[in-house]
Write a structure and sequence with these properties.
322 residues, alpha+beta, 5-stranded antiparallel beta sheet, 4-stranded antiparallel beta sheet, 12 helices, globular, DNA-binding
Length: 322
DNA sequence: GACTAGTGTCGAC
DNA sequence: TTACGGTCGACACTAGTC
């Protein structure tokens, strides 16, 4: 098996870094990017926070109110709503630069990617180190963003730390331990490689397998009509994406997040694939009706999901089969 | 028991 | 004292079939 060299590139505190980019004065202040819910006030959660904010114990996923408490005595702390269009724009530019450095490029999310650079580095850690530095410089020059590039060297260090010397040492570890030490992607790759399975650790991103929308209700409720109104809006939203991406779906699901934040889901497989908004609406409303039977706990958030997607090749594709 | 399709839950980002 | 988003993929579980 040839030596694989894989880069994991990610932008730390990406959204906050984007905000610093358009307003450099923020750099010295705690910057907290928030997803505010429809409930108004400070209802919502933290998407990301820069290092200054993290010093105060502010972390992703934390309730906004909680985070505000943490910096009560810090008047310069800045809380901003997310601006996903702007972040997507910057991400696209950055990924454009990054992908040029890969033999195989895998986009994972707005702020993360995997690069297989085995060919261009010929498996050498020395040239991989140089390439990583060039990549960081190129990203900085073109976007002014800083990113971290993790490479196989680090994997070697972790092996040494964990006193792993042989393949049979590796085989003793379960995939969860490996994932927690190396990240899911590399963890799974090591797990397979130790068992003689040489799957590519990096592969071109496939099409999405599901689309979903979720919203926080104005108030907790188990009233069908109240929930149905939001659900219909969510259906229309998902449907717009379906049309834009020219896909059909075969499975429809709804999701409740209950007032104690526990989750409940219900889904249904359709007889045929479709892109019909009517069918999406009808099915999800039916699932809502069924889910509310015997539902005791009020619902806080409501979501809809379509999956089992397939691409429609052309508008006339269906008629062509008849 | 092995396999699969369908369903529900969990957690990363 | 408590506080709580949105989107996605992975995977575990179950029931049906052979």
């Amino acid at each position: 098996m040839e030596q694989r060299v894989v880069f994991h590139v990610d932008f730390d505190y990406f959204y906050a870094q984007c905000e610093e980019l358009r307003n450099p004065e923020l750099k010295t202040k705690p910057v907290v990017v928030c997803v505010f819910s429809d409930r108004g006030g400070d209802s919502g959660a933290i998407a990301t926070a820069n290092y200054v904010a993290r010093k105060y114990g502010i972390k992703s996923g934390m309730p906004i109110r909680f985070a505000k408490k943490r910096v009560e005595q810090v008047p310069e702390a800045v809380f901003l709503p997310t601006d996903f269009d702007y972040y997507a724009d910057i991400s696209e530019k950055a990924m454009d630069v990054i992908s040029k450095y890969a033999d195989i490029f895998e986009y994972v999310g707005k702020d993360e990617a995997y690069l297989d650079v085995s060919k261009r580095t010929e498996g050498s850690f020395v040239s991989a180190g140089h390439l990583a530095q060039q990549l960081k410089n190129a990203v900085r020059n073109s976007t002014k963003l800083s990113c971290t590039v993790g490479i196989g060297k680090k994997t070697e260090e972790i092996f040494a730390q964990m006193d792993l010397k042989t393949i049979s040492d590796l085989k003793k570890l379960d995939v969860f331990t490996l994932n927690s030490k190396f990240g899911r992607k590399i963890g799974a790759y090591i797990y397979n490689a130790a068992r003689g399975i040489d799957d590519d650790p990096v592969s071109q991103r496939q099409e999405a397998t599901q689309y979903s929308r979720i919203t926080t209700l104005k108030q907790d409720s188990i009233d069908y009509d109240f929930l149905a109104k939001d659900l219909e809006r969510l259906c229309e939203d998902v449907h717009a994406t379906i049309l834009k991406d020219n896909v059909v779906f075969k499975s429809v699901g709804i999701q409740f997040v209950q007032s104690d934040l526990s989750t409940k889901t219900k889904s249904k497989m359709l007889k045929n694939s479709t892109s019909s908004l009517d069918e999406l609406r009808k099915t999800s409303l039916q699932l809502l009706h069924e889910s509310l039977e015997g539902q005791k706990m009020p619902v806080r958030r409501l979501g809809v999901k379509v999956s089992e997607l397939s691409q429609v090749s052309g508008q006339d594709s269906i008629t062509r089969y008849f």
